């Protein structure tokens, strides 16, 4: 088997990947909080995780991919204060919190499909694992890691020695980060809620009576972090290989997951590799976030504008997952051009498919196995297309790369060469006019005609041999 190297946030190093159990790799990805549509920043993280899973599978591993759906417990501001995001969504839309969760879970799954993201093997909802979460809190309680204050049961982070192991920050810096939220009753700023009580005199839509689950706390709901500890251990058993999410999860969510799980089971390893995707930012390096009001969705940014959502996937593959990616219309326009060009290169390979070249497959594997270096893997694709492989062999390998890893829609193309596709008469006329303008070196007119042709759903490519027009 080929070697795979992955950057582990825990050690801040690229490490050779060695599964805990060779027969199956456990992969846990923190899923969405389903109170609104996912924005394209969120989706960048899920594209990175999809590539990770595909790369493991391309190398011959069987992967068990688990993703949670946070349908309760995630409060506004990622901490322990403020409103529950689901209850907030319910007020905003006049639906029940359960309906909100169901609606946005469906919307999320539909986004994944549009981006060719392979669905996880197991979806798990926080509200369906209440017993497991309560059981885990009870273990922590028994071991003396918890304390009760007026609004819930909290985890005492000062009792856990390695609290800063994942973040590599000193404790004071972590505490500073947590101080944003003022809760006078907490013993340490980094302490977090395991179980929140429903506010006195208020009936929440999502609340449980712990007495029915073997604990004697007041009615309430689980904190956000406990769900991922409880569900990952319940569903992956010993196969706690890789845990991933966006970089914002390092200092709080994943740090707290480790603190809970290791305190409950000190002799068990809680995930060997921790991987984090960098943010999608908007101009000026500002993070895309729902709270920042710069909230772009796949629907409003791509689909409504007639742009194929796979353009976004292609754009995401052009930036390494650990580097920030910038969103702008211009970046997406270039990605669209790039993807169309690649599609046309594919179309020009003709109808027959040959055999997969070992040399180029190895080159491609070397890049994807080097901490998912997709920009370099795409460069290998271009190198292969320029090589002296036969068109049939080029076609075979490009189809394989797309089906197995890239997922950018090459394999879905009608394999008929585009020149055979009947181009509508209007376009033929514009094409002729543009040829004339080019001959006369009237570049302004030629540019205008190019725009017109493109508006009709075609791509124009100029080369030294003339002009070619393809259906997008
Ligand atoms: P949430 O639904 O807020 O729990 O976030 C879902 C996933 O998206 C998490 O893994 C986050 O770390 C990630 N995420 C949030 N904002 C961004 C962003 N601007 N760019 C990339 N990933 C993000
Ligand atoms: Zn999580």
Short summary of the structure?
With 472 residues, the chain is of the alpha/beta class. It contains 15 helices and 16 strands. The strands form 5 sheets. Strands 5-4-3-10-11 form a 5-stranded parallel beta sheet, sandwiched between helices. Strands 6-7-8-9 form a 4-stranded antiparallel beta sheet.
Structural write-up:
Helices cover 41% and strands 15% of the residues. It has helices spanning 40-58, 85-93, 97-114, 130-142, 171-178, 224-236, 250-264, 298-301, 310-317, 329-347, 358-368, 374-386, 391-406, 425-439, 443-455, and strands spanning 5-8, 13-16, 25-29, 63-69, 122-125, 146-149, 152-155, 192-197, 220-222, 242-246, 273-277, 280-282, 286-287, 325-327, 458-463, 466-471. The two termini are 39 Å apart. Helix 4 (130-142) crosses helix 6, helix 6 crosses helix 7 (250-264) and helix 11 (358-368) packs antiparallel against helix 12 (374-386). A five-stranded parallel sheet has the order 5-4-3-10-11, sandwiched between helices. Strands 6-7-8-9 form a four-stranded antiparallel sheet. Strands 13-12-14 form a three-stranded mixed sheet. It is α/β, with parallel strands linked by helices and 472 residues long. 43% of the residues are buried. Bound molecules: adenosine monophosphate and zinc ion. Residues 30, 228, 253 line the site of zinc ion.
């Amino acid at each position: 088997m080929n070697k795979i190297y992955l950057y582990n946030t825990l050690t801040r190093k690229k490490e050779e990947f060695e599964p805990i159990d060779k027969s199956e790799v456990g992969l846990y990805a923190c899923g969405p909080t389903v109170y609104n549509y996912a924005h394209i920043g969120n989706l960048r993280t899920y594209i990175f995780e999809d590539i990770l899973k595909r790369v493991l599978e391309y190398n011959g591993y069987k992967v068990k991919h688990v993703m949670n759906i946070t349908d309760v417990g995630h409060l506004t501001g990622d901490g322990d204060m403020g409103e529950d995001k689901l209850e907030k969504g319910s007020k905003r839309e006049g639906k029940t919190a359960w309906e909100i969760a169901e609606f946005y879970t469906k919307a999320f799954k539909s986004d994944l499909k549009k981006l060719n993201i392979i669905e996880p093997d197991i979806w798990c909802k926080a509200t369906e694992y209440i017993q497991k979460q309560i059981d885990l809190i009870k273990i922590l309680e028994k071991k003396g890691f918890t304390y009760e204050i007026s609004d819930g049961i909290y985890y005492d982070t000062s009792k856990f020695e390695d609290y800063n192991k994942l973040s590599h920050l000193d404790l004071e810096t972590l505490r500073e980060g947590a101080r944003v939220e003022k809760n006078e009753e907490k013993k340490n700023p980094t302490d977090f809620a395991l179980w929140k009580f429903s506010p006195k005199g208020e009936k929440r839509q999502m609340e449980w009576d712990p007495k029915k689950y073997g604990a004697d706390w007041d009615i309430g709901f689980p904190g956000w972090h406990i769900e991922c500890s409880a569900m990952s251990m319940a569903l992956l058993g010993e196969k706690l290989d890789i845990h991933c999410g966006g970089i914002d999860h390092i200092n709080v969510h994943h740090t707290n997951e480790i603190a809970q799980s290791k305190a409950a089971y000190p002799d068990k390893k809680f995930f060997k590799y921790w991987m984090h995707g960098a943010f999608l930012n908007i101009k000026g390096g500002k993070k895309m976030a729902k709270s920042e009001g710069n909230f772009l969705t796949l629907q409003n940014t791509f689909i409504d504008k007639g742009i194929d959502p796979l353009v976004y996937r292609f754009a995401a593959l052009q930036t390494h997952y650990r580097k920030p990616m910038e969103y702008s219309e211009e970046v997406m326009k270039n990605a669209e051009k790039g993807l169309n060009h690649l599609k046309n290169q594919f179309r020009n390979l003709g109808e027959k498919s040959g055999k997969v070249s070992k040399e180029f497959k190895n080159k491609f594997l070397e890049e994807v196995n080097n901490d998912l270096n997709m920009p370099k893997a795409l460069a290998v694709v271009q190198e292969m297309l320029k090589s002296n492989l036969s068109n049939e062999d080029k076609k075979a390998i490009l189809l394989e790369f797309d089906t197995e890893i890239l997922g950018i829609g090459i394999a879905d193309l009608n394999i008929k060469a585009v020149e055979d596709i009947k181009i509508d008469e209007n376009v033929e006329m514009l094409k002729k006019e543009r040829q004339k303008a080019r001959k006369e070196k009237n570049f302004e007119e030629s540019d205008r005609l190019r725009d017109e042709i493109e508006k009709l759903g075609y791509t124009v490519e100029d080369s030294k041999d003339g002009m070619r027009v393809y259906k997008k």
